[in-house]
């Protein structure tokens, strides 16, 4: 028997299936762990700002805002209120657009 016959057939993807394949549902959030102690305060501020900017960028992408030019400060702040995050500063809004630009 040829070796190719022994390999299991891969599961179809969305682009190759004859019928729609259900997409994976979102996972449960990861359990939060405390941040490492002993770092300078600026490190914690920057770390939390990056996390917030990532959450906002993901929410904007999910809502259909795909270009950084479409993500004005007002749009980012309204999205923040929708997902239950404190209104971001101008610096965080800039970081959200940078994440969106980087991922293109």
Q: Tell me the strand percentage band.
A: under 5%
* Helix segment tally: 4
Main structural class: mainly alpha
Number of strands: 0
Coarse shape = extended
Mean pLDDT over the residues: 81
Low-confidence stretches are: none
Q: Give the biggest beta sheet.
A: none
Provide the fold topology:
Layout: H1 3-6, H2 41-62, H3 73-83, H4 90-102
Structure description:
The structure is a single chain. The chain is mainly alpha-helical and 104 residues long. The protein has a domain at 68-104. It has helices at residues 3-6, 41-62, 73-83, 90-102. The relative contact order is 0.11. The mean pLDDT is 81.
Please outline what is shown here:
The chain has 104 residues and is mainly alpha-helical.
What features would you highlight for this structure?
48% helix; 4 helices; 104 residues; mainly alpha; 0% strand
């Amino acid at each position: 028997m040829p070796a190719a016959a022994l390999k299991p057939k891969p599961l179809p993807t969305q682009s190759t299936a004859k019928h729609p394949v259900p997409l994976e549902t979102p996972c449960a959030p990861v359990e939060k762990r405390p941040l490492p102690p002993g770092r300078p305060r600026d490190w914690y501020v920057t770390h939390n700002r990056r996390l917030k900017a990532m959450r906002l960028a993901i929410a904007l992408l999910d809502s259909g805002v795909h270009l950084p030019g479409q993500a004005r400060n007002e749009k980012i702040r309204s999205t923040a209120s929708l997902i239950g995050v404190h209104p971001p500063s101008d610096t965080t809004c800039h970081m959200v657009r940078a994440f969106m630009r980087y991922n293109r």
